[in-house]
Automatic annotation (TrEMBL):
<feature type="compositionally biased region" description="Polar residues">
    <location>
        <begin position="74"/>
        <end position="86"/>
    </location>
</feature>
<keyword id="KW-1003">Cell membrane</keyword>
<feature type="region of interest" description="Disordered">
    <location>
        <begin position="1"/>
        <end position="86"/>
    </location>
</feature>
<protein>
    <submittedName>
        <fullName>VANG1 protein</fullName>
    </submittedName>
</protein>
<feature type="compositionally biased region" description="Basic residues">
    <location>
        <begin position="19"/>
        <end position="35"/>
    </location>
</feature>
<feature type="transmembrane region" description="Helical">
    <location>
        <begin position="224"/>
        <end position="244"/>
    </location>
</feature>
<feature type="compositionally biased region" description="Polar residues">
    <location>
        <begin position="1"/>
        <end position="10"/>
    </location>
</feature>
<comment type="similarity">
    <text>Belongs to the Vang family.</text>
</comment>
<keyword id="KW-0812">Transmembrane</keyword>
<feature type="compositionally biased region" description="Basic and acidic residues">
    <location>
        <begin position="36"/>
        <end position="45"/>
    </location>
</feature>
<keyword id="KW-1133">Transmembrane helix</keyword>
<dbReference type="InterPro" id="IPR009539">
    <property type="entry name" value="VANGL"/>
</dbReference>
<feature type="transmembrane region" description="Helical">
    <location>
        <begin position="111"/>
        <end position="133"/>
    </location>
</feature>
<feature type="transmembrane region" description="Helical">
    <location>
        <begin position="153"/>
        <end position="172"/>
    </location>
</feature>
<feature type="transmembrane region" description="Helical">
    <location>
        <begin position="184"/>
        <end position="204"/>
    </location>
</feature>
<dbReference type="Pfam" id="PF06638">
    <property type="entry name" value="Strabismus"/>
</dbReference>
<dbReference type="GO" id="GO:0005886">
    <property type="term" value="C:plasma membrane"/>
</dbReference>
Length: 525
């Protein structure tokens, strides 16, 4: 009997069936089958085998119905240890191949843009130096002597180029945060402007200085200084267009997650649609709670249960009393629809009761474990330094005392897929190292945190799809709606312009607040 329970727990923890109705119909028939026959039937009918997460916390079966669990289900749960088979489905293979193809195209586009910008930047910094050195190399003997003013211009050019180099490094040489579908219009315009500017300077230099071999060396140096000054002004223009223009809030965007309806509001300035989408995604990972599809399982199963049809048996034979059957089905469906809110109410009340009870057990277990740690630390302070226990060993020592309560709470709140045993041990050792309280340790598990709080492999989506009726390079406008899609859900973004606010001033005379209190000498009795 224990072997049967082990086999059933193994397959229920790592494989999922698509035909839930068939499984429910055959549950009673397959209950007494041997483990070997159950294994054989499952290998033939399974359509998807999901790879289990690394070191799950004593099981990770999110699809198991919560209603059938009692408070003592932990004693009948089999913990699977050792090695396990990792398999992958055809859908995962197709998605991985598509991601590889997209990543190759994006990498080529990214490196091409970086190469063009680097070549143009190198040309910009070498052009003033070339303007000064070419006359010295080609017709050095014919040049007029460079006086004090000319030598001072050398220092001016050197420091201006240094300032331009530092400003360019601070503004442009940043690690890219994302790959946008289209080019950044203002940055492309700046690159074109710089290219045309440098090309025009080279054209004038070649016609008026190189061809005629101008002997006025001071004028040539001043020409190079004017180029550097113009480049500094272009850099100032780049700061205004790329950084300062978007700082003033002009629009308010509402971001709604399509699955659970969670919403946030953000204020944005003058941005294109693709850059606004990038800002929305950056704020999404920080502000939105982690997406948990297991929380939607209960509502979906409840809706499917209410939408299921009712079986009506005709005892008089086929073809008789058809209208009576239809009326009976309609009446039964109406009664079931009227009582659905009562079922929802009692189901949610029972779930909240279980959550509160298991939360209380978890809090007590964690407080007792931390109390034990404090007592151990007080005892180890009297020992030699070499015999003291490090935080990792202390976390491993007290974790079994709270593991069962934590496991039950995570299963009840459907968070077990986001917390592996290794991550819990790391968090526990971190809390012990920094002398944190039990409440600080439990904050991560009692309150679902933002997406960035969890393991990157469990939530990170490598690719988002931007869907917009307008061009993604166009600016934000009032009433624009665009959608950011990933594999499991989408973010619907609605843009509203901040209204024009008119303030008026009302002057209040300071003397209007003064009053005189007059007292009569005679009073009525």
């Amino acid at each position: 009997m224990s072997a049967t329970m082990d086999t059933e727990s193994t397959y229920s923890g790592y494989s999922h069936y698509s035909g839930h109705s068939k499984k429910a119909h055959r549950q009673g028939r397959d209950r007494h089958k041997s483990p070997r026959s159950k294994d054989g039937s499952r290998s033939e009918k399974s359509v998807t085998i999901q790879t289990p997460p690394a070191e799950p916390l004593l099981g990770n079966d999110a699809s198991r119905a919560e209603e059938g669990q009692d408070d003592n289900w932990g004693e009948t749960t089999t913990a699977i240890t050792g090695t396990s088979e990792h398999s992958i489905s055809q859908e995962d293979i197709a998605r991985i191949s598509k991601d590889l193809e997209d990543s190759v195209g994006l990498d080529c586009k990214r490196y091409l843009g970086l190469t063009v910008a680097a070549v143009l930047g190198l040309l910009v910094f070498l052009t003033p130096i070339a303007f000064i050195l070419l006359p010295q190399i080609l017709w050095r003997d014919d040049l007029e002597p460079c006086g004090t003013v000319c030598e001072g211009l050398f220092i001016s050019v050197a420091f201006k180029l240094l300032i331009l180099l530092i400003g360019t490094w601070a503004l442009f040489f940043r690690q890219p945060k994302a790959d946008l579908p289209r080019v950044f219009v203002f940055r492309a315009l700046l690159l074109v402007l710089i290219f045309l500017f440098v090309f025009s300077y080279w054209l004038f230099y070649g016609v008026r200085i190189l061809d005629s071999k101008d002997t006025n060396y001071q004028g040539i140096v001043q020409y190079a200084v004017s180029l550097v000054d113009a480049l500094l002004f272009i850099h100032y223009l780049a700061i205004v267009l790329l950084e300062l223009r978007q700082l003033q809030p002009m629009f308010t965007v509402k971001v709604v997650r399509s699955t659970d309806g969670e919403a946030r509001y953000y204020s944005l300035g003058h941005l294109s649609i693709q850059r606004a989408a990038l800002v929305v995604l950056e704020n999404y990972y920080r502000d939105f709670t982690v997406y948990n599809p297991a929380l939607l399982t209960a509502s979906k199963s409840r809706a499917a249960k209410h939408m299921a049809g009712l079986k009506v048996y005709n005892v008089d034979g086929p073809g008789n009393n058809a209208s009576g059957q239809s009326r009976a089905m309609i009446a039964a469906a109406a009664r079931r629809r009227d009582s659905s809110h009562n079922e929802l109410y009692y189901e949610e009340a029972d779930h909240e009761r279980r959550v509160r009870k298991r939360r209380a057990r978890l809090v007590v277990a964690v407080e007792e474990a931390f109390t034990h740690i404090k007592r151990q630390q007080a005892e180890e302070q009297q020992k030699a330094p070499g015999e003291m226990m490090d935080p990792r060993e202390a976390a491993q020592a007290i974790f079994p005392s709270m593991a069962r309560a934590l496991q039950k709470y995570l299963r009840t709140t459907r968070q077990q897929q986001y917390h592996s045993m290794e991550s819990i041990l790391q968090h526990l050792s971190f809390c012990i190292t920094n002398n944190m309280t039990p409440k600080a340790f439990l904050e991560r598990y009692l309150n679902p945190g933002p997406t960035l709080q969890y393991d990157r492999d469990r939530w990170f989506s490598k690719q988002w799809t931007l869907v917009s009726e307008e061009a993604v390079t166009s600016g934000l406008q009032d009433g624009i709606v665009f959608v950011l899609k990933c594999l499991d859900f989408s973010l619907v973004v609605n843009v509203k312009k901040i209204p024009f606010i008119k303030l008026s001033e009302e002057f209040i005379d300071p003397k209007s607040h003064k009053f005189v209190l007059r007292l009569q000498s005679e009073t009525s009795v």
